[in-house]
């Protein structure tokens, strides 16, 4: 299979796992050394484990992903790395209240054995120009 298609499928799997609120499947899409930079946090998360712990805390506080759609995809292959850029429309529930989010995201994938795993995620707000 073409590498661009492999990255596209890896990203689709990640988004689908997130959209279905399937924690185990979602985190299996990331390498252990993955880093995360979210506009909603004061500091980056420097490992998958750190994000998993925060995710569990969020869920204990009533966080649930209801839906997530990816659009405007661009993939750039850089050797053993791939840069995946897209717009993300997400519906979440926090403590019983639903929210619709429009964000832009960059996910860096790294080829490990025969899989593409996400090794960095950067989430930002979509600016209204």
TrEMBL record:
SUPFAM superfamilies: NTF2-like (SSF54427). Transmembrane segments: none annotated. Residues 7-126 form the SnoaL-like domain. This is Nuclear transport factor 2 family protein.
